[in-house]
Every structure is written in C-alpha cells, then in structure tokens.
C-alpha cells in the first residue's frame, strides 16, 4: 500500500503538455510548498499566471524558452538527463506575474512554488552560478546543487536544491528535521522530494518520522515519485548498483534552513 506521503507519476495529457506530478497545497496537506512536473515536446507551450505564489522554473532536462513580460530567456537548459550530473538553468518569477514555458527540444520542467511575501525581479539563474558542494563522508556522501539556497536573496520564501547520492550511501543523513519555528536553533520548513533513479528500474528508501512516532512512514521510492515531508526526520538510503537524484523544494514562515539532527544518530558525525 502506497503511503499518503508518496505520490506516483500522473502522466496526464493536458493538450500539448504532459503533467507528470502535481503536489499542490490544496490537496497535499502542506501550507507552504507546491510542486509540479511537466513534460514538453518541441513547440509545446505551458502558460501560468501566479497569484500569491512565487515560482522557480527548473529546466530539469532538455531545452526551453521562458518568457515573463519583457524578459525572454531562450534555449536554456544544459542536460539530456539529470544524471549528466551538472547544474542546469532555472528562472525565478515573483508572485502576481504571468509566464510562458516553450519546449525547444523534448524537455522536463520542474515548477517549484511557495508563498510570495514581497515582489522581486524575474531572474535567470544560470547553471554556472549554481553552487556545487560535497557533503558527508564514509557511506554518507552526496553532491548538492544549490539552485536557490537561503544565502541567495532572489526569492522571498522559496528554497530549491538538487542532490545526487550514489549506491550504498545515505543522504539527508544523519536523520535531520526542520519542523519547529524556533530560531536560531531550528527553522520550520516543509519539503518535497522529487526522485529519479539510474537505472530507472531501481528504488531507494525514504523514511519520514517524528520523535514521538505519531508519524512514521518508510517508503520504497521509485523513479518519478514524489515524497511529501510535512514534518519530521526524512533520511534517504540508496541500494548498491543504483544512483539517486532528488529535487528538494522547501518553504516556511522564514527563509532560513536551520535543521536539527536526530540525537539518537548524531554520534555518527563524530567518527
């Protein structure tokens, strides 16, 4: 039985656009985070007018044109597969604006949403400006692409990162959480994980649990799934022979990523 926190791919045709995933606040139980994943054929167009949300448009794979008012960003995107393991281009659009995404090639596009708390300029986030870092050691290694980290003032509430984890490793580990509005110790941030696996028949494991175990779900996550993290710790484990990619969208009342490790497992960091 699939967990209420796990969303399988939709693959719904919406004219020239295919809707692969849709996890929006109206039906997800989340208060701050929204996520859509669309697929475009060459020449296909997706249009949207934002109301109270801001949006980061991530050229996940393929090439796209993005238009917002007088801003036109052509032929953006850098990879044929997320497992090319290089950063890609994104566009940030503030609340109250309309935008259009057109497929230049076959393309997969992530639309990441959170509340827009103040108007901000539309911005192209170039691949070469995306910070890359290595985290962890031993069997806790992963590569992170910081598309919209909390150090970047381009967004008012939205945080977006990509993470690669090789087989036999854990990420989001030791288990950490960010579900209390208790700065400077911890920030309240909801989160979604969009997962891909290489090869695609693989799977990973993700557990979402709270200290009191009032929420405790362990999921076998397959290619194209989304996991919703409303609260709690949320580690990911990747079996040998497969590589994991996930795109994280985070947002909360304050745009600060301050996490709290599970004290039962924090000793791992002292090795």
UniProtKB/TrEMBL annotation:
Keywords: Isomerase. Its EC number is 5.3.1.30. It is an enzyme of class 5 (isomerase). This is 5-deoxy-glucuronate isomerase. The gene is iolB.
